[in-house]
Design brief:
It is found in: Cytoplasm. This is D-alanine--D-alanine ligase. Pathway: Cell wall biogenesis; peptidoglycan biosynthesis. By secondary structure, the chain is of the alpha+beta class. The chain folds into three domains: about 15-100, Rossmann fold, CATH 3.40.50.20; about 110-125 and about 190-295, D-amino Acid Aminotransferase, Chain A, domain 1, CATH 3.30.470; about 130-190, ATP-grasp fold, A domain (Dna Ligase, domain 1). It is about 35% helix and about 20% strand. The strands form three sheets. Strands 8, 9, 10, 11, 12 and 13 form a six-stranded antiparallel beta sheet that branches. A four-stranded antiparallel beta sheet has the order 4-7-5-6, with helices on one face. The protein has a three-stranded parallel beta sheet with strand order 2-1-3. Helix 1 (about 30-45) packs across helix 11. It is globular and about 60 Å long.
Amino acid sequence: MSAPSFPPPRNTDPAAFGRVAVLMGGTSSEREVSLNSGRNVLEALQARGVQAHAVDGLPALLEQIRAGAIDRVFNILHGGDGENGVLQGLLSALKVPFTGPGVLGSALTLDKIRTKQVWIASGLPTPAFRRIRRGDDLRAAAAELGLPVFVKPSTEGSSVGVFRVLAEQDLQPAIDFAAGYDGELLIEQMVQGEEYTVGILDGIALPSIRIVPAGAWYDYHAKYIAEDTQYLCPGLSGQEEAQIRQLSLAAFESAACSGWGRVDVMRDVSRGLQLIEVNTAPGMTSHSLVPKAARQAGIGFEELCWRILESTFQARPA
């Protein structure tokens, strides 16, 4: 399957964007990754002549909006209030355009459990799972699902707090973590197979990427530090590539998402493609995946940032 075809950018005048706040940093566990992404986006927009400046966190953003210093927001605030609907609700109420999905799509997809519930209701494939609240018996849930499993927070990203449990003795670190964690955890059947991701840009699925870490799995180190992780793009070919793009777009839209984002998928040796999660403010670092897929489609990093910012001119789905 060939790379998707994109129409020319709708806008050629950087002044049309006005004063753009590149929102980054914040207080979530993904702060450092967000700062890295934000610096790259800021540099790309400024290189295209956009009047963009960095803003670190929601209080600073609100202060600048009150001062009348912001016309629109490029949200690259990973995790927390940047992706849980709080930012989106604030900006919607203040009528400040912003990148990424709206309130519902952002809040829903930050919560892996609720996202999977929507996918199941929509007839889309995702691994079997159990919800773990504080005090629940994690060992019993693992036995019910059957090993191997992954245990992870329902509302964190960047592989923060993720445990790969292959055998009974691997469970104790996850149990210890759960005892001190205030939020809900997700325990799901481990997919035995290949890992893929598909970027979504303006209603079009980008070429898939197959992720091949040098280690046993794609953890935080493989995502942001290691230089030996392989990224094969497109990850599939022919009808299989068409299928993963169609599935990813359906998963994105069924979760009330619009604009841009990324859908993580795995291909199980027996069950086929399985949806894992959606990221509504994907990384834009040197290791990040949406820029890699966009390049395969003929869109460089500066143009990618421009096109994402252009989406702020469009009305969101109700």
